[in-house]
Amino acid sequence: MGAVDSAPRIPSVSELLWPTLRAVREIGDSGTIEEIVEKAIELERFTEAQQAVLHGDGPRTKLDYRLAWARSYLKGMGALDNSERGVWSTTEAGRSMTPEDVVSRHAAYVATLRETRKAKRLAKAGQEDEFDEESARRDWKERLLEVLFEVPPDGFERLARRLLREAGFVSATVTGKSGDGGIDGIGVYRLSLVSFPVFFQCKRYKGSVGAGAVRDFRGAMSGRGDKGLLITTGSFTADAKQEATRDGAPPVDLIDGERLCDLLKEHRMGVNVRLVEDVEVSPEFFADL
């Protein structure tokens, strides 16, 4: 008999609308994308297997992709809003919506989008133009992650070493080899008058890094140090994040692909940012002089 496709099912965008809105409400009506995703995973009890399913060829997971669209639809439906700093919050309407309200508003919003596309003869790609902020933010990060996957393993380790130095490490040395399951390097971070060693490991993953990888990394650190940094181009499952901060075990700091892109942008490493100044005169200011 042929192999059976046992890929776990991922809920559709429409099925994720209420869990996403509920997640924002549960964490105090505002939160970062990471906080919202973590709470939605907790509320819906998504397994590590579900969190690891890729969207197409990656690097994003299907769950992350659909949760991003759920946030965007909820914004269009008037339930959520987001700031320039990437903080999402419930609106007055969103704080009182019921699951039934979400279903009816979604149906009305989708109908409006269809009419708009029909009237303007928009192509399918034009649908995503409705969510410029989210799409633009994702697009450059996806392009950057694609470039990182083309970098040789030793080059990726050198990139991590340079990033650590740019971020304030007084030294960073590559000690291991990619794929050896151990420690890739060690850096020394200085905080005011105190310095301490930090072991790091780099994982170029498409998809999610599970709790097992965190445990293995901590095991490799055993007897050598108690500060660890795990860097990946992918994401971390909820179980991996819990394992990283487990009571009684040395903490491991996690940098996922999203955060890695932000750090490369912050330190202008392979990312160029063009700022456009838009100057507008306000006559009202001078009216009361």
SSE series: HEHHHEEHHHHEEEEHEEHEHH
- Mean pLDDT over the full residue set: 84
Distance between the termini: 86 Å
Proportion of strand residues? 15-25%
Structural class: alpha/beta
Query: Largest sheet, if any?
Result: 5 strands, mixed
Number of strands: 10
Poorly predicted parts: 124-133
Main-sheet strand order equals 4-5-6-8-10
Radius of gyration: 22 Å
Structural features, described:
This protein is of the alpha/beta class and 289 residues long. The chain contains 12 helices and 10 strands. The chain has helices at residues 13-26, 33-44, 48-52, 62-76, 92-96, 99-120, 132-150, 153-166, 211-221, 238-244, 257-266, 283-287, and strands at 30-32, 80-82, 87-90, 169-174, 185-191, 194-203, 208-209, 228-232, 235-236, 252-255. Strands 4-5-6-8-10 form a 5-stranded mixed sheet, with helices on both faces. It is globular, with a radius of gyration of 22 Å.
Features:
about 290 residues, alpha/beta, 2 domains, three-stranded antiparallel β-sheet, 12 helices, about 15% strand, globular
Provide a brief overview of the structure.
The chain has twelve helices and ten strands. The chain has 289 residues and is an alpha/beta fold.
Blueprint of the fold:
Layout lengths: L12 H14 L3 E3 H12 L3 H5 L9 H15 L3 E3 L4 E4 L1 H5 L2 H22 L11 H19 L2 H14 L2 E6 L10 E7 L2 E10 L4 E2 L1 H11 L6 E5 L2 E2 L1 H7 L7 E4 L1 H10 L16 H5 L2
Parallel strand pairs: 6-8, 7-9, 8-10
Antiparallel strand pairs: 1-3, 2-3, 4-5, 5-6
Helix pairs in contact: 1-2, 1-4, 9-10
